[in-house]
Amino acid sequence: MGNKEILSPVELPFEEAIKIVQETLGENILKRPDLLNFRLPDGMHLSRDDEWHGEDHGVKVFGFGHANAKLELARERKLGLLDQESKDEDIIDFLGFGLALMGHDCGRFFAHEEEQHGEIGAERFELFFRNKIPDTSLEEAMHLTRKHVPPDEPLNMSRTYRYLKNADALDRTRTNDPAWTLNPDYLRDDSARLLVSIARRTNEVYYEIRGSHKDGFSAAVEALAITGLVK
Ligand SMILES: [Fe+2]
Ligand SMILES: [Fe+2]
Questions:
Q1: What residues flank ion ligand 2 with Cβ within 5 A?
Q2: How confident is the prediction along the chain (231 residues), in pLDDT tens digits per residue?
Q3: From ligand 2's centre to the CA of 79, what distance in Å?
Q4: In the beta sheet, which residues pair with residue 81?
Q5: Nearest-10 crossing angle of helices 135-147, 117-129
Q6: Would 121 disulfide with which of 30, 35, 107, 173, CB 3.0-4.6 Å?
Q7: What would the DSSP string read from start to end of 62-107?
Q8: Distance of CA 78 from the midpoint of ligand 2 (Å)
């Protein structure tokens, strides 16, 4: 759990939140081709069209997690916590991180199957990506996928782990079920908090347009573009 005392006390309205996010990110906003590049290979995702943990969920988690990372890096740089000359790419392995955002639930077969899907997902990364991407990126994707399943890593939480957990939580706005929907208290930093109304809007848009798209993946990409988190 993050430092609750530094979090904004209220959920910012969507228009206000997206304006801040777009102004802060500037040229760093996620580009559609970069998102499309991260689509997992055919057959890798065990429940590709599952309505809870299918590819659409991976796309939205990618959008939220990428924004969370870029916003936090910008904030830390502004506060002097990071070297002004440092590059985001030197701090985060965006290939490994992005693959984990997109594929953290690729080992999930049934929505109710909780316990093993992190480990199964990590094995699927090994199977599909070993010797195709740098080992360090593969290890990052596998580690995050394996560890994203509760119970959380209590100590030494890496920043990519934190952003993945935030983004996964933000996509809980896809349901209003009180037992399951987002509890913003569980978000781990201020930037994720800023994304709450944007995640909510993304899911509203997603369910509005899902029927007119060939699959959940493309509908989710479009929903992020309509919301303004992807250019
Ligand atoms: Fe999961
Ligand atoms: Fe997930």
A1: 105, 168
A2: 344 444 455 789 999 999 999 999 999 999 999 999 999 999 999 988 877 899 999 999 999 999 999 999 999 999 999 998 999 999 999 999 999 999 999 999 876 667 799 999 999 999 999 999 999 999 999 999 999 997 776 667 899 999 999 999 999 999 999 999 999 988 999 999 999 999 999 999 999 999 999 999 999 999 999 999 999
A3: 31
A4: none
A5: 160
A6: 107
A7: HHHHHHHHHHHHHHHHHTTSS-TT--HHHHS-HHHHHHHHHHTTTT
A8: 31
| Distance between Cα 188 and ligand 1 center (Å) | 17
Domain residue limits, the chain? 4-227
Rounded Cα–Cα distance for residues 128 and 106 (Å): 11
Tell me the ligand closest to 120's alpha carbon. 1
Ligand nearest to the CA of 121: 1
Ligand nearest 107 Cα, by number?
1
